[in-house]
Design brief:
With 287 residues, the protein is mainly alpha-helical. It contains 11 helices and 4 strands, in the order E-E-H-H-H-H-H-H-H-E-E-H-H-H-H. Strand 3 and strand 4 form a beta hairpin.
Length: 287
């Protein structure tokens, strides 16, 4: 392979613009048509560079990616098991725990219409499901242990709607959050802000943009749904606001709005290194 390398001095003057073979490439790697463009871009103060992740962040992110792949495989396997059993008139309720509990009973039940070959097939699929469960539980335990040891994760765990999985995922992707100017930028990076379609001075807000990392956005919205499910009779200011929002806009929009607020609060926690204060907004408003 041939690479185009552009070298500049401290006065931003081009010293050389050479084509170098892979075996001779040591420091600068650029594609041929983009070499000069990259040099020009790095000289602009307005250009924001992508922050470099630490090895710990890369390790955490890799664990999350592997765990998510295993979860998707388990979901696909569970759907296949339900489909096969339903072909013989055996319905299994929703939920991975219901599936794991009922499969042995279905295989042993001699009164259903399953054939012997299908019972053997379901037994093999059940073993595969248990193996996936054990691997997912292993990586979940690794993330939970990291969340208990990492200072940033421990601060995030005090925020409603954030557990060990979300906390480690957020730290692995944004670190201290100092790559964002404010919390809204971080929420926009995750696609949790409205997409605009404005023309002629008439602003028009659409649904969320869904930009950025879909994995972290999904986790945050799931965490927000969990908070909404456990609202009950909580009387703090945030719960009252959320309860009114649910009654006015519905559960789905309220979950997205809460996820947006969670991201902004998490940015403040990460950048300032302070603990989460539940009544901070209320006290600020009173003062």
């Amino acid at each position: 392979s041939i690479f185009q390398v552009c070298i500049v001095d401290k006065n931003n003057k081009i010293v050389s613009n050479l084509s170098i073979k892979r075996r001779d490439l040591s420091r600068y790697i650029c594609s041929q048509p983009e070499a000069l463009v990259v040099v020009e871009a790095v000289q602009r103060p307005q250009i924001k560079s992508v922050p470099i992740k630490s090895f710990d962040q890369q390790d955490l992110q890799s664990i999350h990616r592997v765990r998510e792949r295993l979860v998707k495989q388990r979901t696909a396997l569970a759907n296949q098991i339900r489909g096969i059993s339903l072909e013989y008139g055996v319905a299994i309720p929703k939920g991975i725990h219901q599936l794991s509990r009922q499969i042995p009973e279905i295989i042993e039940n001699a009164e259903n219409e399953l054939t012997m070959r299908t019972r053997e097939l379901l037994a093999d699929l059940y073993k595969e499901l248990k193996l996936l469960d054990s691997r997912i539980n292993h990586y979940t335990h690794v993330l939970e242990t990291e969340a208990k040891q990492n200072e940033a994760c421990k601060r995030l765990l005090k925020l409603e709607g954030i557990g060990p999985i979300i906390a480690t995922a957020m730290v692995s992707m944004v670190g201290r959050g100092d790559c964002f100017t404010n919390g809204r930028q971080m929420a926009a990076w995750l696609g949790l802000v409205p997409r605009q379609y404005s023309s002629g001075g008439k602003p028009r807000l659409l649904g969320i943009s869904k930009r950025g990392d879909s994995y972290l956005r999904k986790l945050l919205i799931h965490g927000a749904r969990a908070v909404i499910r456990h609202l009950k009779e909580k009387t703090d200011s945030k719960s009252r606001w959320l309860r009114q929002l649910v009654s006015r806009a519905g559960t789905n929009k309220a979950a997205v709005a809460l996820a947006n607020k969670t991201v902004r609060t998490a940015w403040a926690i990460l950048t300032k290194g302070e603990d989460y204060q539940v009544d901070f907004v209320l006290n600020t408003a009173k003062s």
